[in-house]
TrEMBL record:
Top enzyme class: transferase
Enzyme Commission identifier(s): 2.7.7.13
Domain (Mannose-1-phosphate guanyltransferase C-terminal) ranges: 291-408
Nucleotidyl transferase domain segment(s): 4-199
Signal sequence extent: none
Swiss-Prot/TrEMBL keywords: Nucleotidyltransferase, Transferase
Protein family per UniProt: Belongs to the transferase hexapeptide repeat family.
Protein name: Mannose-1-phosphate guanylyltransferase
Organism: Salvia divinorum
Database matches in Pfam families: GMPPB_C (PF25087), NTP_transferase (PF00483)
């Protein structure tokens, strides 16, 4: 059998995701109408012989309890949340729960970052891994040389696909092939992590009895149970015939900011169009709103037949969309009201917010700049005829004058 582990992080991570992470753990923020972590979970569900999915993080148990039980029922795959008492790093977190993960005696363990958006070609990754016969195989993708330094850059042998060199977010350019944060390992990975951890312990002992610390200040602050998969495992083991790469040519993005979540919501809607079009809104029937492109509308949302929605719009539970409203490239969260003739373009509208008549909430739509997508936090009120452009508004604010390029605290 195989098992899958999804790293969900915790509340100290994801600060770039504010103000949306003030209300909901980032892994549960909806993309294309489903919690972010649903997308990798659904991909795992398609792996043959999958026994169990573990979510590892340091969010409070209760924040995931409801989600985990409902998704387990829905997909009929057991999903368990394993809570770390503190962050142990991506490899340390895995190692911490080795006994639970090995309960089913899996031959292979998939490891997925929860904050990446891709097609998760897990069956292809497994097949490639079986042919290489290493300890692990990394999903990689080619990106533009200018953007590569935000990720782990790597070099692989073009013939054997062996990982030859790995550096995490290097300052000078190494390679345009990057680590997608999706892996498959044999259980030997636990021995490798254990190795790093005991090396750290030995060094700590050495430091106590000598002045070794002065020579290695970089190692000082890392406790022995904090192990990063990238810097501490992949870098030192590159070129030792342990790790291999599998390159995808499909879509891939990292979801660190609200702006990127909007882009990724659109990518998942486009995937639904190919794999499960029944999840998307269709514009046929006279009592329905005009739908263009890929749109998700929760069954409990009320959309006026004269509204025009899409492309790339997701409307969550109990939202009310008034007459003559125009929604383009946006995420409308639960219990939002958008009143008559308002326009929302390139924006995320937070839970319980209200957009007044003839108002405009919009942005340039550049996902890579901080104010390229307008974000309204929870319970924001935009009064009638007010225009909010390229701005971020924190929860509970009332906007009674128009703003542009502002962060409203
Ligand atoms: N449970 C747990 N505990 N999860 C963690 C911890 C931890 O201590 N630290 C990080 N994570 C989770 C994050 O929530 C995220 O899903 C994943 O592990 C990786 O986070 P980081 O270690 O902060 O790395 P990153 O996202 O900046 O970069 C990594 O992913 C990129 C792909 O998205 C690196 O592996 C890069 O090389 C890679 O390109």
């Amino acid at each position: 059998v195989v098992v899958a582990v999804i790293m969900v992080g915790g509340p100290t991570k994801g600060t770039r995701f504010r103000p949306l992470s003030l209300n909901t753990p980032k892994p549960l923020f909806p993309l294309a109408g489903q919690p972010m972590v649903n997308h990798p979970i659904s991909a795992c569900k398609r792996i043959p012989n999958l026994a169990q999915i573990y979510l590892i993080g340091f969010y409070e148990e209760r924040e995931f309890a409801l989600f985990v039980s409902s998704i387990s029922n829905e997909l009929r795959v057991p999903v368990r949340y394993l809570k770390e008492d503190k962050p142990h790093g991506s490899a340390g977190g895995l190692y911490n729960f080795r006994d639970q993960i090995m309960e089913e005696s899996p031959s292979h363990i998939f490891l997925l970052n929860c904050d990446v958006c891709c097609s998760f070609p897990l069956a292809d990754l497994l097949e490639a891994h079986m042919s290489y016969r290493g300890m692990g195989t990394i999903l990689v993708i080619k990106v533009s040389p200018e953007s590569a330094n935000q990720f782990g850059e790597l070099v692989a042998d073009p013939v054997t696909n062996e990982l030859l060199h790995y550096t995490e977010k290097p300052e000078t350019f190494v390679s345009d092939r990057i680590n997608c944060g999706v892996y498959i390992f044999t259980p030997d990975i636990f021995t490798a992590i254990q190795g790093v951890s005991s090396q750290r312990k030995d060094r700590a002992t050495l430091r106590r009895v000598s002045s070794f610390e002065a020579l290695q200040p970089a190692n000082r602050s890392l406790p022995s149970d904090f192990v990063r998969l990238d810097q501490d495992i992949l870098s030192p083991l590159a070129g030792k015939k342990q790790f291999y790469v599998y390159e995808t040519t499909d879509y891939w993005e990292q979801i660190k900011t609200p702006g990127m979540s909007l882009k990724c919501s659109g990518l998942y809607l486009a995937q639904f169009r190919r794999t499960s079009p029944d999840l998307l809104a269709s514009g046929d029937g006279t009592k329905n709103a005009a739908i263009s492109g890929n749109v998700y509308i929760h069954p409990s949302a009320k959309v006026h037949p004269t509204a025009k929605i899409g492309p790339n719009a997701s409307i969550s539970a109990n939202a009310r969309i008034g007459a003559g409203v125009r929604l383009v490239n946006c995420i409308i969260l639960d219990d939002v009201e958008v009143k008559e003739n308002a326009v929302v373009i390139h924006a995320i509208v937070g839970w319980k917010s209200s957009i007044g008549r003839w108002s405009r909430v919009q942005a340039s739509g550049d996902h890579n700049t901080k104010l390229g997508v307008t974000i309204l936090g929870e319970s924001v009120t935009v009064e009638d005829e007010v225009v909010v452009i390229n701005s971020i508004v924190l929860p509970n604010k009332t906007m009674n004058v128009s703003v542009q390029e502002e962060i409203i605290l």
